[in-house]
Each structure stands twice: as C-alpha cells, then as structure tokens.
Amino acid sequence: MAHLKMKCTACGTLEAVEQVSLIQGSIGKPTKRISVIFFRTAASGEPVREWLKSLEPTEGRKQIGVDIKTVEFGWPIGMPVCRSLGDGLYEVRSNLSGNKIARVLFYVDVEGRMVLLHGFVKKTQKTPLADMELARKNKRLHEAEMKGRK
Hints:
Layout: E1 3-7, E2 14-18, E3 35-38, H1 47-54, H2 58-74, E4 82-86, E5 89-96, E6 100-108, E7 113-122, H3 129-149
Parallel strand pairs: 3-7
Antiparallel strand pairs: 1-2, 4-5, 5-6, 6-7
C-alpha cells in the first residue's frame, strides 16, 4: 500500500495515511468525499477552531484532526469514528490520551459540506443536553444563513 501525506482541513496537520482504495478517476491519490467548513458566528468567530486551538496537549488536537480527515475521505462512515445523533446531526468520535474522549458535532449542509458546529471533551457517558442544544442552535443559524444567500 502507498502512503500519502494529506493535510487535515480542520487542524492543518500533515499525517501519513495508508491508501486503502482509490476512487475511480484518480490515480494513486485518494479524493475527499466531503469537504469540511467551520460554523461561523455572526461576529465571525469559529467556535470549533478556537476550541481545537485551546486543547492541550497538541496530540489531542492532532487525533481529532485525523478523525475528521477520516470522515472527509470515507463519508459516509459509521462507528467507531462517526455516529448519527438524529435531527441531521452527527458526531466525530475521538479517543484522546489520559482516557479522555472528545466529540465534534456536525451536520451536512445543502451544499454537501461537513459543517463543524461544536466540539467538547466528554465528562459523562451520555452526550450532555447543553452540548446537543448548542449544536442544534448553530445548525439552525447556519441553515438560516444559507437560505439568506439564495
């Protein structure tokens, strides 16, 4: 198998990825199946990007980036990396060092892009309701902005 270096859209890290299969039409280079964007607030903030930059150690940020990249190149993808939460929301599931678990909640917009809505480190077994509500709110805001552009 060939190893290719690919840049993660979410965190900018370069990682060697084992090429498992080629998408028809590409020669030796995997193709993203879905592109990633960060949800942007009215004040132009990007909460998920800001959260990622705040994570220590940087290995956690890199692991989350690798998991987001796995979704980019493998969409649609299921467990253990990605899971549907209902209402059009999905989670990218990342296991970090020190038995920490991170989640990035996203949805796929009308343009077929993976919109990163909210990220957090889990402290309980179940996804906290406040985190789900924040992701739903950000999804509604993004959808309203998309409608306003048309």
